[in-house]
Design goal:
Length: about 270
């Protein structure tokens, strides 16, 4: 299901033995535009400490109850590596986090989640694999590519022929936990319209200038299908969107990856 991340904010996170807190923020990978972690406000339970929850641990989304169920215990979360969510999350922090839960890394394979296409495919503990990976990461000291969705909201959107508006939200797929679209508020240029742009059409992001550069003209964006937050995003709407821009839809590319993934498991 596709939904705006603002609708997920405030969702209750329920462990196998009780509630952990509520969703507060999202960290996405600026290379693949996948949501790698949810920041959870634990309230008074852990003295106001915020913890990271990986989509790998999510086993169910209850939209009516506004709740995410995770395959974790409260004790596991309580003793998880302490990560300051007010500072950048480094690759070393991620390695410690993934190693603690026994998850393989997501940056070492051909799919959106490394060796798996969906985060649920990484939920099987792989301690020996993770320990070997941790040693490799310590040697390589690679940088993380995590960005706060909240911090990026408000960035200016620069079309191929000038400014068009600003980034006002993220549309995420709650199965792959991939950001499928960014929401562009174009009221800076003409009143009232909101449109969606795929991350695949983003040419670059200037973090220093707080700008997102897209390979689309202002006219193309202006004439694109309007997005209304109150209306569910259907496949019919997505087809119209991709047809308008003359770009191949993401699910065609992913179908190829899924087929390859299935064959590798055979």
């Amino acid at each position: 299901m596709l939904t705006n991340t603002m609708h997920l904010k405030g969702f209750v996170i329920r462990a196998t033995d009780g509630e952990l807190g509520t969703v507060d923020e999202f960290y996405f990978d600026d290379e693949t535009w996948a949501i790698r972690y949810l920041t959870v406000d634990t309230g008074g339970w852990l003295g106001g400490r915020r913890v990271l929850i990986s989509p790998i641990s999510i086993i169910n989304t209850d939209w009516q109850a506004k709740r995410l169920d995770v395959a974790l215990t409260k004790t596991q979360v309580e003793h998880s590596p302490d990560i300051n969510t007010h500072e950048p999350v480094s690759r070393q922090h991620e390695t410690a986090y993934l190693g603690y839960y026994g998850y393989p890394n997501y940056w070492g394979g051909p799919y959106l989640w490394g060796p798996a296409f969906y985060p649920a495919g990484l939920a099987v503990p792989a301690t020996a694999y993770t320990e070997a990976l941790a040693d490799r990461v310590r040697r390589e000291s690679a940088d993380s590519h995590l960005r706060s969705a909240e911090a990026v909201t408000g960035y200016y959107i620069e079309a191929s022929d000038g400014e068009i508006g600003h980034l006002d939200g993220f549309i995420v797929d709650d199965e792959a936990w991939a950001i499928r679209y960014i929401e562009v508020a174009t009221r800076n240029w003409w009143p009232g319209k909101r449109v969606l742009v795929s991350p695949a059409w983003i040419e670059r992001v200037s973090w220093a200038d707080s700008k997102v550069y897209v390979g689309l003209s202002r006219e193309a964006i202006q004439e694109g299908p309007e997005y209304a937050d109150s209306t569910p995003i259907t496949r019919e709407y997505e087809n119209r969107l991709y047809f308008h821009y003359g770009r191949p839809p993401y699910w065609l590319h992913e179908t190829e990856h899924k087929s390859a993934y299935s064959l590798s498991d055979a």
